[in-house]
Design a protein that fits this description.
Quinone Oxidoreductase, Chain A, domain 1, 7-stranded mixed sheet, 6-stranded parallel sheet, disordered C terminus, alpha/beta, 11 helices
Length: 357
């Protein structure tokens, strides 16, 4: 079988499609034939060799990439029983944890001291066959296609953690999502709208702004070429600000994100793609009764709940393009250039899902 792996850290020339040994399931494992695997910013950071607080690096090279994946179970271990069966369509939950601490027992997987992600420290899902504990897959609702499901685990679990678990967005609130072109941002906008909020977003690209304005759940788009965009947002809000800001950009946007918050507003942080050392005014924060809340990739409960929501609501991931595994370098190039709206997904040649719009 084949997969997409990095042989070193650096540019896209470090990514190769390589031959890999086929996995055998352990007693409590299933083997999933991966139909589709999404490309995430985590893949770029791992390939680039990012270091720093909270950054997990591959244990060894070559390293197979991929946090997201969905496919069909083709083998099960002797102890799996009827919990998962051959032929089941599943999405893989990429978080690995101890399973016994108080957080794990409550489904709060990402708070576990042993928490790690498939595709970061451990080999990832951008390979044709993948062995994983049966407890780490969820059966897909009949209405959710494999192509859509592959875009769910990282982006939509994180977005659920941001919008529902952490921000507790309520009907009628105004939610501003910074950098609306990203996968988590697109998911957060959908979930906020589903929660009854008014959804605003920002982008630095005029062409992206035009595409974002076409999305039915986006109420207003601000094209923000540089710092100081908070003034335009506050003007549109009649000086009242917004109730929630979802910010995965980090350092370049924090000052503006804090300034647009209404008194008592909350900024939920789920990434730092632009840098993790922001320059902010502490007084602007506490004197406005504003809060900053951290929301990394969520736990099993968030993953299970968001898959169930997609199954019954008709919400579908925003998929920018689908590329064959052989074009994985092009997927990295496009994501690094921030050309996309939503997710870029790799077709591993076994998929039977729809073509992306």
């Amino acid at each position: 079988m084949i997969g997409a792996a990095i042989t070193g850290h650096g540019g896209i020339d470090q990514i190769h499609v390589v031959s890999l040994p086929e996995p055998e399931p352990g007693p409590a494992d299933v083997v999933v034939q991966i139909a589709y695997a999404a490309v995430n910013r985590a893949d770029l950071l791992i390939r680039q060799g990012l270091t720093g607080p909270g950054v997990r690096r591959p244990k060894q090279l070559p390293h197979v990439l991929g946090v997201d994946g969905a496919g069909t179970v083709v083998a099960t271990g002797a102890q799996v029983g009827d919990t998962v069966r051959v032929g089941d369509r599943v999405a893989v939950f990429p978080a690995m944890s101890c399973e016994v601490c108080s957080y794990c027992r409550r489904g709060l997987t990402s708070r576990c001291a042993e928490y790690t992600l498939i595709g970061e420290e451990e080999p990832g899902l951008q390979q044709e066959l993948f062995a994983v504990p049966a407890r780490s897959v969820v059966r897909l609702p009949d209405s959710l296609e494999l192509l859509d499901a592959a875009a769910v685990p990282a982006a939509y679990t994180t977005a659920w953690t941001v919008v529902v678990t952490t921000a507790a967005v309520r009907p009628g609130e105004r939610v501003l999502v910074v950098g609306g072109g990203g996968g988590v941002a697109a998911a957060a906008m959908q979930l906020a709208a589903h929660s009854g909020a008014q959804v605003w977003t920002t982008t630095r690209s005029e062409s992206k702004a035009a595409r974002l304005r076409e999305l039915p759940y986006v109420d207003r788009v601000f094209c923000t070429a540089g710092p100081g965009w908070s003034a335009e947002v506050l003007d549109a809000a009649d000086g009242q600000g917004v109730d929630v800001v979802v910010d995965s950009v980090g350092a370049p946007s924090w000052r503006d994100s804090i300034r647009v918050l209404a008194p008592g507003g909350r900024m939920v942080v789920c990434g730092a793609t632009g840098g993790d050392t922001p320059d902010i005014s502490i007084r602007e924060l506490y004197q406005g009764n504003r809060s900053i809340l951290g929301a990394p990739f969520g736990g099993w409960n968030d993953f299970r709940d968001v898959v169930a929501l997609l199954g019954r609501s008709g919400i579908r991931p925003v998929i920018d393009r689908v590329l064959p595994l052989a074009d994985v370098r092009e997927a990295h190039r496009a994501l690094e250039a921030q050309e996309q709206i939503g997710k870029i997904v790799l077709d591993l040649g076994t998929g039977a899902g729809r073509t992306a719009a």
